[in-house]
Specification:
It comes from Arachis hypogaea (Peanut). This protein is an alpha/beta fold. The chain has one domain: Leucine-rich repeat, LRR (right-handed beta-alpha superhelix) (Alpha-Beta Horseshoe), CATH 3.80.10. It has ten helices and 18 strands. A ten-stranded mixed β-sheet has the order 1-2-5-6-7-8-9-10-11-14, with no helix packed on it. The chain has a two-stranded antiparallel ribbon with strand order 3-4. Strands 12-13 form a two-stranded antiparallel sheet. Strand 12 and strand 13 form a beta hairpin.
Length: 374
């Protein structure tokens, strides 16, 4: 086992027939970073260690010289002996196996019809192909966590794939898709479609403006949410977050216990996402904290000007910005009136979501034509 300042390399396969779980790959060192949503696990020799408050979306931690010796065939044993190992498997966790490809992962998932928990971090596999494999084979899945190895560049997801996933995996309660390019109308298909969904994490995703949040409180697929994490979503708009908070004040999202709307680069303004908002005067954060003390509301933003200084250097680089919880000491927070927010209406969302159900959508950077029937 190689020791490095950047990460630990795990080479062991943890396949416990009692727990029916398989974990393998390369895990970065356990340096806690803000914004992580769930405890993850790494293996150090023979001990299993729970790690909380950890972010897997640190590209630099995967750019060291060491790499996993595991190849795309590392999951092939799941299909042996008539597929018995795969049939037994309930939990599958894969971390930074660089040689894994779509076909190999798809073949492995086809051997795991009883899978309940799937976690994929840092694999060079496509979001669309992976979700298609899950949809086709893992109908009992309850938790799906998938973090991109190339933040913001995977634009492969299609609306039809979302619809099929919703139809074929009705038991899903936890969904994490981090670091992908996700459009609001596709996210809405997922969140509104899963009737048992309680945990949602779209951290570091591109293209999400927050318009998918509209009217979620009035549908089964959104009103049961207990955790919603939208940390560091580049295009998340201040006005959409404000509307969502206003909906909470109006009595929606009664089960919500945690909301993370922090952004190390500030929220996007309504008219131009290049213009960042650091100390909002329209988000009723204080009122929500007073009305709903049961909610753990995290709203951390950098000091004003930090984003502009770093943006000119490298827009796509992983940057560290000073954070402060400005929401607690802002006395200017105000409510959005019901007439101003029109929160429960899908009209005027500013993108494809506000269109008629039969409206044809032409996606930027995609040859797909989506027909929405929500």
């Amino acid at each position: 086992m190689h020791h490095n300042l950047m990460y630990y390399l795990i080479l062991s396969i943890y396949f416990n027939l009692c727990k029916r779980s398989l974990k393998l790959g390369v895990i970065p060192c356990a340096t806690p970073l803000p914004g992580s949503c769930q405890p993850l696990v790494y293996t150090n020799r023979n001990s299993i260690v729970e790690v909380s408050n950890f972010s897997w979306n640190d590209k630099r931690s995967r750019q060291g010289r060491e790499s996993s010796i595991l190849t795309r065939s590392c999951l092939s044993p799941l299909s042996r002996d008539g597929g018995a190992p795969g049939i037994l498997l309930r939990k599958l966790y894969l971390y930074n196996i660089e040689r894994m490809d779509n076909a190999s992962l798809g073949q492995a998932l086809s051997a795991c019809p009883s899978l309940l928990d799937l976690e994929i971090v840092g694999l060079h596999v496509e979001l669309r192909q992976t979700l298609m494999s899950v949809s086709a084979n893992c109908h009992s899945i309850e938790r799906l966590c998938f973090e991109s190895s190339k933040t913001g560049r995977d634009d492969s997801l299609k609306t039809q794939t979302c619809l099929e996933l919703v139809d074929n995996c009705p038991h899903l309660t936890s969904l994490s898709l981090r670091g992908f390019k996700l459009h609001d109308y596709k996210v809405r298909v997922l969140v509104k479609g899963f009737q048992k969904l309680k945990y949602v994490d779209f951290s570091t995703s591109y293209s999400i403006t927050g318009s998918f949040l509209r009217s979620l409180g009035s549908c089964m697929g959104g009103n049961l949410l207990e955790v919603l994490i939208l940390r560091d979503c580049m295009h998340l708009k201040e006005v959409e977050v404000a509307r969502f908070l206003t909906a909470i004040l109006a009595g929606d999202f009664k089960f919500l216990l945690r909301l993370d709307i922090s952004n190390k680069e500030g929220l996007a303004s309504e008219g131009d996402w290049y213009h960042r908002c650091f100390n909002s005067s329209i988000m009723p954060v204080k009122q929500v904290l007073e009305a709903r003390p049961d909610i753990n509301l995290v709203a951390e933003y950098p000091a004003e000007g930090s984003y502009n200084d770093s943006f000119d250097t490298d827009m796509n680089s992983e940057i560290s910005l000073p954070s402060q919880l400005s929401s607690h000491n802002s006395d200017r927070s105000i409510f959005l009136s019901t007439s101003e927010s029109s929160y429960n209406s899908d009209q005027g969302s500013g993108n494809e979501d506000g269109q008629d159900a039969s409206y044809v959508i032409y996606e930027e950077s995609s040859d797909e034509i989506d027909f929405l029937s929500l």
